[in-house]
């Protein structure tokens, strides 16, 4: 514990660090010291901690700071209260759910960001400034003027100054996709997509009786000449693209390819739906297609994929007023509005800078986890760089569905390529999501277990595909 050097000569507990003003909030320094001491055995389950008032006096801190430190340590399952007997180091929690979930694409919890405090502060500001009755009643679809202005602010890095009147606020990107399909296509219509695409698109199209047809790709994404051929042959109603840190391949389409596809869409008079949940996670992402061809592209950006899953708020940029009305009419048929409290919290976080701080924390954590995946899966790592997932090509002796079943038997959930397939071509790969496991140690254990599984040939029970 070199960083947490004991200062017993001052009469303080041996696990306590020297508190420093340049190392973050003091309550987090205390909680981190507790966690380090439990990890290295300096503190053991059942050890009694000093009363909060005593420790506050010894450290010359407010009681509130020590209380927050103990609360944070309880949140990390390090401490337990025993009433009048005091506070004790907790016994390790028994893991009731042994499955290591590498299948759900969610933002990782950022290190160094006090999410509980962020949530409490944000809701406190919302409740203080808003008419509380308005947070619990019906609202017109599409979001309030304040929500749309917040959306324009959130999208400013992609588009610069936006007309907030062209933005609509929706309860998540999936709802937005479904409403666009209902509004801009008819049963039996064709939607063009890449051979591997977001499963939510496939599910919505299947439910509504639309046909998804695959357009060939190369290492830069959808091929322009193949898109033009497909447009002339099938007369599609929409083209779906996810060009930044694509789900599942994690590829980012370069600007030149985006311009070529936008030009073909203009020439063939077909709308592009640009689903872009990861743009703000990427380092120096090219401009969105919707910035290159504003009259041709409808743009979706969701907060739940780059901030936190519970923030079910998506911004949809539709420049044509008639299409906006058709979209809203379709949306109202199944999702009248974003929950007003959720929308108000998103707006508050965007305008007060909390969303930006949370985003930076998520970006930093995602990059750390990508490096971890690269180290453990060296030689097979498909990369993602800045994103939330890895696309992993498999050795010939494993088939993707077969590998997913074998991983499940060992307590690991991954997503096989079949879940993303829009065409008949088989791809032997899996997607590994890096954000859904909160604890880095458990994520590391899951990746190592998966690496060992990949290195050996399948057991006889898994030879069938």
UniProtKB/TrEMBL annotation:
Gene3D superfamilies with a match to the protein in the record: Type I PLP-dependent aspartate aminotransferase-like (Major domain), Winged helix-like DNA-binding domain superfamily/Winged helix DNA-binding domain
Domain HTH gntR-type: 24-92
Keyword Zinc-finger tagged: no
InterPro entries in the record: Aminotransferase_I/II_large, HTH_trans_reg/aminotransferase, PyrdxlP-dep_Trfase, PyrdxlP-dep_Trfase_major, Tscrpt_reg_HTH_GntR, WH-like_DNA-bd_sf, WH_DNA-bd_sf
Pfam families named among the record's database cross-references: Aminotran_1_2, GntR
GO molecular function, one term: transaminase activity
Keywords, alphabetical: Aminotransferase, DNA-binding, Pyridoxal phosphate, Transcription, Transcription regulation, Transferase
Similarity field: In the C-terminal section; belongs to the class-I pyridoxal-phosphate-dependent aminotransferase family.
Protein name in the entry: PLP-dependent aminotransferase family protein
Lineage: Bacteria, Pseudomonadati, Pseudomonadota, Betaproteobacteria, Burkholderiales
């Amino acid at each position: 514990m070199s960083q947490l050097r004991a200062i017993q000569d001052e009469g303080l507990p041996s696990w306590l660090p020297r508190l420093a003003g340049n190392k973050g909030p003091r309550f987090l320094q205390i909680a981190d010291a507790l966690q380090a001491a439990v990890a290295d055995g300096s503190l053991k389950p059942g050890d009694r901690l000093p009363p909060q008032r005593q420790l506050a006096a010894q450290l010359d801190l407010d009681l509130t700071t020590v209380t927050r430190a103990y609360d944070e340590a309880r949140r990390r399952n390090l401490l337990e209260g025993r009433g009048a007997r005091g506070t004790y180091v907790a016994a390790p929690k028994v893991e009731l759910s042994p499955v290591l979930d590498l299948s759900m694409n969610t933002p990782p919890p950022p290190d160094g960001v006090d999410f509980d405090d962020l949530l409490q502060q944000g809701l406190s500001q919302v409740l203080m400034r808003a008419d509380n009755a308005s947070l619990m009643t019906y609202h017109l679809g599409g979001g309030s003027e304040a929500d749309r202005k917040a959306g324009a602010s959130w999208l400013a890095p992609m588009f610069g100054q936006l007309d907030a009147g062209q933005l609509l606020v929706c309860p998540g990107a999936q709802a937005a996709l479904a409403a666009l399909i209902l509004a801009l296509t008819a049963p039996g219509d064709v939607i063009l997509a890449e051979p591997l695409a977001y499963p939510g698109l496939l599910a919505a199209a299947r439910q509504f009786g639309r046909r998804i047809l695959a357009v060939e790709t190369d290492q830069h994404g959808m091929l322009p000449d193949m898109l033009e051929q497909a447009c002339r042959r099938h007369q599609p109603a929409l083209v779906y693209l996810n060009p930044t840190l694509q789900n599942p391949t994690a590829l980012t389409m370069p600007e030149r390819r985006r311009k070529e596809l936008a030009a073909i869409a203009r020439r063939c008079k077909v709308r592009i739906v640009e689903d872009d949940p990861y743009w703000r996670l990427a380092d120096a992402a090219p401009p969105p297609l919707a910035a290159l061809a504003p009259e041709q592209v409808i743009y979706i950006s969701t907060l739940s994929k780059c901030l936190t899953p519970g923030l079910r708020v998506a911004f949809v940029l539709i420049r044509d007023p008639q299409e906006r009305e058709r979209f809203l009419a379709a949306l109202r048929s199944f999702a009248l509005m974003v929950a007003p409290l959720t929308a108000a919290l998103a707006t508050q976080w965007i305008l007060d800078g909390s969303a930006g701080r949370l985003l930076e924390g998520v970006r930093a954590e995602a990059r750390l986890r990508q490096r971890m995946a690269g180290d453990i899966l060296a030689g097979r790592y498909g990369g993602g760089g800045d994103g939330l997932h890895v696309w992993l090509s498999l050795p010939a002796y494993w088939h993707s569905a077969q590998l997913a079943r074998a991983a499940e038997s060992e307590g690991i959930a991954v997503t096989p390529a079949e879940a993303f397939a829009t065409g008949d071509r088989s791809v032997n790969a899996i997607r590994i999501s890096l954000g859904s496991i909160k604890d880095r140690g458990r994520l590391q254990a899951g990746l190592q277990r998966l690496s060992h599984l990949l290195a050996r040939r399948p057991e006889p029970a898994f030879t069938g595909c």
